[in-house]
Amino acid sequence: MEHALSLFVRSIFADNMIFAYFLGMCSYLAVSKNVKTSAGLGVAVTFVLVVTLPVNYLLQTLVLEPLHLEYLSFILFIAVIAAIVQLVEMVVEKYSPSLYASLGIFLPLIAVNCAIMGGSLFMQQRIGLPAVDAKAITSLLDAFMYALGSGLGWFLAIVCLAGIREKMEYNDVPKPLQGLGITFITVGLMAMAFMCFSGLEI
Amino acid sequence: MLSQKTKDTLLGPLNANNPVVVQILGICSALAVTVQLKPALVMGIAVTIIVAMSNVIVSLIRNTIPMRVRIIVQLVVVAALVTLVSEILKAFAYDVAMQLSVYLGLIITNCILMGRLEAFAMTNNAWDSLLDGLGNGLGYAIILVIVAFVRELFGSGQLLGFQIIPQSFYEAGYENCGMMLMPAMALILVGCVIWVHRSINDKEAK
Known about the structure:
A: 202 residues; mainly alpha; B: 206 residues; 10 helices
């Protein structure tokens, strides 16, 4: 339990998906223009991560490893992600039309979001680590906590950036730097700020 | 030999229509593998090959793919190619494959691939798709190499693992900029590349 908790906190701050690994950068930059939509995307990413990572964990440990089929993991993981995203979309549409409306076009796009696939691939690496390692994922609970933490970290990062970008609308930025250039530099500065969490130990 | 249109297809993505700095696709891996020049080069080549090949394959089967499941079909084609490339790299360049780690697998979800497949390969013939894939892959590789060049040169004083900055500089008090090796600097450098690129291209437009 303690290990799972530490994994959770680390994956929000020290191993933040955006600032330490650049996962899901494309949608991160494209959608962070205002706080409301970016919060919607953040929730959607967290949700899909929490559903897909435990499934991929079970696949990796119960199917791929015993059968020595690790080289098939790319195809299998992406198929699972695409299928689950489709499934989640149908379920959400049926039972919660309001949530479906607010997530809108983000849900189908998440299938090709690197954050989800990256989460699965990082988890695959971490399964092999010795249990004493702070980054090791050794149980289903660990996988779940890692997914939740990574998702929340992503959510935090995109909402922060959206807030800054909303304020920055009124700033006098050099013309060629406007838009994406300054956004990159902002994210870089945020990443520097997040670096102070890297020594975090629980 | 090449008509104006095919020339545009091949060379456009290198500068004016660059996938990374203009269309902002495939940023994740562009940032993560650029600490050193060698993995960046390998990554650029791998992506170029995969974009070109998947473009050709999807363009050949585009008339038989049902519209509703096209994303999954495209993903499977790409995933199969990425698996091939990663197995080949593991066999012949193991240390680079380890350095690239998950980012090699993440080529599957690289937006350049899906973007080109959707926007180009689904509506064009195989030859044009091949050129388009090559152009976009090279456009991506160029940015990777620029960023990695700066980061490796100033971050560790080396290029491709060879010492470039002479020892006498260090004795005179020069120090490597450790900041360059941090993830944050990759973002800021790409920001600067976009800045330079835009200011040059805007001038040309005028």
